[in-house]
Amino acid sequence: MDRNDKKKALGRMTADANKEAGGPNDPCAAETTDDGMSRALQAHIGRHVRAMFDEVAEEPVPDHLLKLLKDLDQSGDK
Amino acid sequence: MPRDVSPGLRDALVAQIGSLRAFAVSLCRDRDRADDLVQETLFKAWNHIDSFKEGTNLKAWLFTILRNTYFSERRKRKREVEDADGKYAARLAGAPEQHGHMDMKDFHAALTQLPADQREALVLVGAAGFSYEEAAEISDCAVGTIKSRVNRARSRLADMLHLNEPEDSAAGTPQKVTRTA
């Protein structure tokens, strides 16, 4: 995954969390989403989901998968 | 049979392998099966590269192939899988190989217990970088369905991890916060 994707995901999951621009005393500043979850909690869950995903995504690609593409590449020559 | 796959497209495929593996692991929760799934996805992608329109979203195309492969296999052995799901999740919860914080391990275990459609939606939107619209296309459902799956996934995780106790939240948190009955 490239950095841009990560930023997009981060943006989306925390976008909800950042909407309370008016501060806690602003009656318009919703601290929960329409399904009743606090934005801080949403952001917390989002961070964990990303961390788990990135942990695998950033591992080196296993050789057998690279080899598969190489083999396919060669079989296309015939 | 495959036609020429341009070196550029080949490189683009390689660049997506990491994300594909992460998505595969999140779907099937088993490293070996995940790599088989990625292998099958790459194989299918290569052989159907003609149906990919260059310039469109390669990542979304690959994710679609992977999830369709996963769910069609899963349907084939549904009974077997459903039976194994609970046991597998329980084993994962205690798996010592998980490095990182305790917190992360608990989270991982909770995530594995979500229904597959909810987990998928949460990962596509929350981690893989897709918009709700793209996720809906990948999962072949309505945008509203993706949104509600993501919401349900989040609140189930919060319940399982006891994250939504009002006492733990910042002062002023409205009582709307759901409590498990």
Q: Explain this structure to me?
A:
The complex is a heterodimer of chains A (78) and B (181). Chain A has 78 residues and is an all-alpha fold. Chain A has one domain (3-75). Chain A contains three helices and no strands. In chain A, helix 1 packs antiparallel against helix 2. Chain A starts with a helix and ends with a helix. The relative contact order of chain A is 0.12. Residues 15-29 of chain A have low confidence and may be disordered. Chain B is mostly helical and 181 residues long. Chain B folds into two domains: 1-76, Rna Polymerase Sigma Factor, Chain: A (Orthogonal Bundle), CATH 1.10.1740; 114-181, Orthogonal Bundle (Arc Repressor Mutant, subunit A), CATH 1.10.10.10. Chain B is built from nine helices and no strands. Chain B has helices spanning 7-15, 17-28, 31-47, 58-76, 78-93, 102-112, 116-126, 132-138, 143-160. Chain B is globular and about 55 Å long. The termini of chain B are far apart. Residues 93-100 and 167-181 of chain B have low confidence and may be disordered. Chains A and B meet through helix 1, helix 2 and helix 3 of A and helix 1, helix 2, helix 3, helix 6 and helix 7 of B.
What are the key terms here?
heterodimer; A: mainly alpha; B: 181 residues; mainly alpha; Rna Polymerase Sigma Factor, Chain: A; 2 domains; 9 helices; globular
Instruction: Give the tally of structural domains of chain B.
Output: 2
In CATH terms, the superfamily of the largest domain in chain B is RNA polymerase sigma factor, region 2, helix turn helix motif
Choose one word for the global shape of chain A.
elongated
Secondary-structure-derived class of chain A: mainly alpha
Question: Kindly state the mean pLDDT of chain A as a whole number?
Answer: 71
Number of helices in the DSSP assignment of chain B:
9
Helix content percent band of chain A:
55-70%
The tally of structural domains of chain A comes to 1
Termini Cα gap of chain A? 32 Å
Order of helices and strands of chain A: HHH
Top CATH class of the largest domain in chain B: Mainly Alpha
Strand content of chain B: under 5%
- Can you count the helices of chain A? 3
Quote the CATH topology of the largest domain in chain B: Rna Polymerase Sigma Factor, Chain: A
In angstroms, what is the radius of gyration of chain A?
Answer: 20 Å
Helical content of chain B (DSSP H or I, runs of 4+): 55-70%
**Poorly predicted sequence stretches spanning 5 or more consecutive residues of chain B:** 93-100, 167-181
The gyration radius over C-alpha positions of chain B equals 18 Å
Q: What's the overall average pLDDT of chain B, rounded?
A: 82
Largest sheet of chain A: none
